[in-house]
Amino acid sequence: MSAHTASDTTGERGKDTPAVVIDSVAKHFAEVHALRGFSAEIRYGRLTGLVGPDGAGKTTLMRIMTGLLVPNGGSVTLAGLDVVKDNDAIHIVSGYMPQRFGLYEDLSVMENMRLYAQLRGMNADQHTDIFESLLEFTRLGPFTKRLAGKLSGGMKQKLGLACALMARPEVLLLDEPGVGVDPVSRQDLWRMVQELTDEGMAVVWSTAYLDEAERCESVLLLNEGKLEFDGPPQELTDRIKQRSFRLTGVSDERRAVLSRALDLGTVGDGVIQGDAVRVVLRDGAGREEIDALADEAGAKLEPVQPRFEDAFIDLLGGGPGGTSALADRMDVVELDSDIAVSCKNLTKRFGDFTATDSVSFEVSRGEIFGLLGPNGAGKSTTFKMLCGLLKPTEGEAHVVGHDLRRATGAAKSQLGYMAQKFSLYGLLTVRQNLEFSAGVYGLEGAVKRERIDEMIETFDLKQYLTTSPDSLPLGFKQRLALACSLMHRPPVLFLDEPTSGVDPITRREFWTHINGLARKGVTVMVTTHFMDEAEYCDRVALMYRAKLIALDTPDALKHTSRSDKHPDPTMEDAFIHLVESADMEDEARADARAAA
Amino acid sequence: MRRLFNTFVSGRLRAQIVKELLSVLRDPRSRLIVFAPPLLQLLIFTFATTLEVRNANIAVYNQDAGRWSYEMEARVGVADFVDKLYTVRNRDELRRLIDQRKVIAALDMGPDFSRNIAAGGTGTLQVIVDGRRSNAGQITVGYLNAIAAEVGTDARKEPQRASPVVVRHWFNPNLIYRWFVVPALSGILVFFSALMITALSIARERELGTFDQLLVSPTTTLEIIVAKTVPALAIGTVLGLLMIAAAAFPFGVPFTGSFWLLLPSLLLFILSVVGIGLMISAVSATQQQAIMGAFAIGVPAVLMSGFATPVENMPVALQWMAQGIPLTHFLIIVEGTFLKAMPASDIVTNTWPLAVIALVTLTAATLLVRSRLQ
User: Fold this and answer.
1) In a domain, B1, yes or no
2) Does the pLDDT at position A340 exceed 50?
3) Is A388's Cβ below 8 Å from some Cβ in B?
4) Nearest C-alpha of chain A: how many angstroms from B367?
5) Does residue A96 share a domain with residue A183?
6) Testing the interface with A: which of B6, B211, B217 to mutate, by most A Cβ within 10 A?
7) Mean of the pLDDT values across residues A191-215?
8) Is residue A196 domain-shared with residue A294, that is, in the same domain?
9) Which of B271, B300, B299, B294 is nearest to B281 (CA)?
10) What is the predicted ipTM?
11) How many domains does chain A contain in total?
């Protein structure tokens, strides 16, 4: 690999020469300010994280750095070349991997690589050594003849990386390489990037996952087009070092404790972490209030390692309060039975392919139940069968005692559903959306008016009533979607990746409402790919290859993966461990069969 | 039946109908698709496209010095459809004029043209037509034929019996092209608007993700279909009536039949188209697919409906297929109502197939939406 990376250039440039100089760069699209004018430097031999929630301006900055967009103000210099004036040269010194790398799906791995070599003006036949080292580096060697379209998400990213590395770039720009890649392949990507930076290349890794930022040597933290932080991630987390605590021993009361903690003036941020509650105190605040709360709740308060996401929230001035105005207005849900949702041998086959294979579980009233799994593991199929969007091939599903196969109408009026991307009618105004949701659930007359007014007041939507949901700020969009799905006061709420693409503060507010609802007895079913969000769940079902491979509380799942290597495993560690052991079991079974 | 009635009065349905109407009227894309083509087509079809030949240039190579060839040349020269008459002196010149598209047709009269007529024989002249413009060329030949026939009649000195056949066109005696096209346009435009509105409706919701939201609510498939039918029905009816009014008033096409028979036929026609549109929408994942589907079905349907070529001239298999196209039946009704004062019995003959098509396609659309739930 070392034969064709930037290693030969590091000698003259040194580690201290900036690879990219961003000088008060600004970009706006019509009314939208994507970048609000900031300066920063990116250095050689380092992995720099470009971190921020969706819409923060990460992709815009990436595209300016590769010369695909012209900034409205300021300038960017990459490897000593101005991205506007020396546009042609930029494409030679930089390698860019967009979010969806333009692989030709009908060409094989090798054909894709040859094509990219030729596009770079290289003679494909003379560079077999480069191909070999790239294939070895990406571990794609055994798959050279496979069509790119048939590769898994992780392998596609690796092939994209191989193509981007073809022309020995000095600066490598990776736009959200971790999206759609399962945790195991993600480890592989990190390893490759590490090798590249060791050889002196400047690598920029953009991500919306704040936990990925902790693995970068340096971080540019963007929020709403502004640079909030520039430096090593440790520096940011150190700011809240003495202020991060964990309250343990509050298992049954953790939601109430979190809610009360967040309402304290001295607490800036807090989340649920399995059986414990994690809080961050405001800058300069004393421990007295939280100590008092811990005593009252009979909890143990211990200092913990701060996380990057907590530091980010702290930087933005803390998260929302702990009281959900929505939940306060809801009546306590009473059900005839303690089981709110159940399924038995639930199976779905599409032709020969089994998407969900005999899944059974029961969810009790007031429980937050998480459904997790890698892409294509069957979690959305299972979820869709539970809320009546798909008919099971075999088995049955019940919502509040109603069979989804027979009493569909009755079952459906008992559930609320909030989809990814919120599914609002952009052509209708906010008020018309509310009226539609109320109407479609059969609310009429005074009740309808009352509920709509209530939602407007609870979620503070008054100022937006005549605008389209499309032009709402993200946080309000989410409030509206939640309002629409709760208009008919359902005892069961289904959330399909409710917070993907949402900034952490909006996410906190959302979970405040969900926690409040759960305390009122609303049962919540949620799918997510944020591992830290799984911590909010009472129980988590992990699906892999159409099967339910684990079902337990988050802490118990983490406990099973505890080892010498990971004494205090995260949810992601647990996830990787469980998926890998399921793979090993499969292999062992296959071996046993072969032996027999 | 009771269930159907409950469906119609429920608040759920009202909420959905309001949503559908607002979606169509507030979506700039569907507004464009619904309202721009009718206006454009009305203008294009009625003013630009016409099957009549006007402003044609004709060349004449007259080798004869006699009376009848001059008569012929003079009459062609003053004919309405002729713009310019080129007199040429040799064949090369004639060939060049046609080659360069200066003329659409040329008359070549031999030296013995008048002599033969004077001798009581037949005067023969040659007409050379530009085959590259075959349609207009053929029509020009027709006009020239008529002139030649007139000259021939005059050439007989004794008063002759009138020419054996005199054609009189009933219902449209002057064969005014617009009398045929404008009423038919009302059918075609309603067909495309209703098809587009409905084809986009489910696909749009699927693209936005709101269709799942709708499916998890207690609303029934029947309600979804009804709610999506209403806006198309309302907009289609308004458009259709506007087009019919445009035909009757500004264009002066005689409206001889019964409006009260035409209106229910129009409604049935729209319903049958809505069924087709919803079927397309139910199987499309995106709006783009839906638009492609609507064109893939819509364009052949218009071509086979009898608007462009008479259904009777098509192969038997295609004639059968044409019976399944709602537009085929509605064109007969609307043309008949305008020009022929079509009686109720004839209208019913063409409305019941519409009712059958509507029933079949709407049922199929409902089943398709339901099967998508699997």
Assistant:
1) no
2) yes
3) yes
4) 15
5) yes
6) B217
7) 86
8) no
9) B294
10) 0.73
11) 3
